[in-house]
Amino acid sequence: xxxxxxxxxxxxxxxxxxxLAGIAATAVKPANTARxxxxxxxxxxxxxxxxxxxxxPGSWSTIVGGGQTDLRDQQYNDAGMVFLDGQNLVLKxxxxxxxxxxYRAGSITTRGKRVLGPHGRLTTRQYLTTGTGVGxxxxxxxxxxxxxxxxxxxEIDATEIALGRPGAPFxxxxxxxxxxxxxxxxxxxxxxxxxxxxxVEHTLEWSPSEISxxxxxxxxHSATPTDPxxxxxxxxxxxxxxxxxxxxxxxxxxxxxxxxxxxxxxxxPEFSAVIDLIRFEQRSA
Length: 285
Fold this sequence. Notes:
CATH architecture: Sandwich
Distance between the termini: 19 Å
CATH class: Mainly Beta
CATH topology: Jelly Rolls
Radius of gyration: 18 Å
Shape: globular
Number of domains: 1
Helix content: under 10%
C-alpha cells in the first residue's frame, strides 16, 4: 500500500445524528479528489462521489430480486432501499417483509455498464451503522461470468464485513478449486476494534503478481498466483465489474440480532451503509 489516507489527500467526514436511519452524514467533500495524475504514480480512471440526486445510469444499476437461498440470504433486494442524499450513497436494510422475505435491502452493480481493470487500485470510504446479522461487501466478478460461470470467472471481494463481527472485516478471492466456503482469504486484526459508527477507507491493490487488501492504509492480507491453493487457475488478469451489496442473515453475515440495529423514525429497525466515494486508479505509463 502506497501511503496513508491522509497522504493521498483524503479527509475524514464526520457523522452526526439525523435522518439516515438515525444518522446524517455531513462534512465538506475532500478537495480535488478526481485527480488526473497522482504523485505516487496512480491515475484516476473512474470515480464516483455520489454527489448527484440519483445513481449515474451509465455506471450503476440497482439489484432487484430475492436473496440467494443457497447462501441463506433473508433479504429482498429492493431498489427502494438505495438512496443518494446529495453527497453520499446510502444502502439500507429494514426489518420489513417483501415478496416472501423478512427484510428489504439495497445493493447496486456495474454489471453490463462498467468494468474495471485488469489491475489497479480500488478505494471505497464507508460509514456503517451497527446491525448484527447484516453483511456489507464490495465484490468484483469477471465480466465473462455468463460464458464461463462462477468461480471460473474469478471473484475478488475487496472487502466483506459482518456487522456481528465489526472488528474483523475480511478480503477474499474465489477461483477454480478455491471458492465458496474455501476461498483464499484473510481477516483484519487491528488496530481498529470496529468499523461500525466511523468512516473507514478500504483499499484493494491488484496487480499481475499480487492482490492486497488494506484498511486505512494498513495492509492486512495479500494473495499471489504462486499460492498452492490457486493451482487450479488464476482468473484475475481480466476486466471485472463491481457490486456493492447489503445482505441479511447469510452464512457469512451471521444470525440477525435486532438489539443493536438503529430504529428509524417509523419505529422499524433499519441499518444503513453510507458510502461517499468509490475510486479506481491504474498505474501511469
